[in-house]
Amino acid sequence: MADTADRRADPRTLWPEVRSVILLGLNYGPADDPLAELAHKDRGYISVYARNRDYHDVIKGKLKEVAGFLASKASSDVKVFVDTAPVMEKPLAEAAGLGFQGKHTVVVSREFGNWLFLGAIFTTAELPADAPERNHCGSCRRCLDICPTNAFPAPYQLDARRCISYLTIEHKGHIPEELRSGIGNRIFGCDDCLAVCPWNKFAQAGREARLVQRDDLALLPLADLARLDDPSFRARFAGTPIKRTGRDRFIRNVLIAIGNSGDAGLAENAERLLDDASPLVRAMAVWALGRLLPPKAMALHAAERLEQESDPDVREEWRRAMEPRIEALA
Length: 330
Prior knowledge:
Layout: E1 20-27, E2 43-46, H1 55-74, E3 78-81, H2 89-95, E4 100-101, E5 107-108, E6 116-123, H3 142-146, H4 164-170, H5 177-183, E7 186-188, H6 192-195, E8 220-221, H7 222-225, H8 230-236, H9 247-261, H10 267-272, H11 279-292, H12 295-305, H13 312-329
Parallel strand pairs: 2-7
Antiparallel strand pairs: 1-6, 2-8, 3-6, 4-5
């Protein structure tokens, strides 16, 4: 339980009557090394946390069970939070002794590693505070050095504008060109900084049945994903966190992975999306083909579509894609 006097994350700003905060962590550790999947360039990588039922639903139910028991025993009011309010779970978890914030800004447990979902129970009951956890990163910087897009300007600092998890899940627009190659085949989230943490040597595979990895959400063929329209996308990922990105953003990510694959055999999947209704998708189809097709083939596509293209961002992708090829054709 966290001491509510911790000013970094004072819960009284959300609920003035709160007297105690209970932080809970649920282990979702993978059974195998997820980074091994990044070698399969024709497959899309889904972050470990999203390969199952939406964790919000699972954890909220568990928190309500604990909170209900507490409310009945202590005759207190309770509120539960799982990413549903501006609760600073990580500093509160550190203050409660659950773990410490690593240099990658994620909570690390010496018992479970850093594969933890966090939830909080606010209560009006007066409970004794646990001792805070101290930092155990030492001189290690594996999580910082492995980041494909250099999203850590310094230890304990994350630049979300360069973070693959933010870019592929939360970012609604076009992903900056200079970051696309670093994304590789990660189409929803990224686990690199988590997977290399040395404290994972004590981690165990998650045991919550409702969060066990679905086999159909690992190593997804990019060619199949590129064919998803909105109804099939919703049906394929119903009940998972993936659905929240929407079809267009997801296909944007798939096309970036196709462009990074180096597999010319996947070009036909991007070609088909040059006429997609979404400018976000069309733009990334252009970018992907620019990395896979020879100059003459790209020139033919440009001749067919560029004049009719009205979206300025898509036209800019065509310009950037064709610029070096015009020189090659000269």
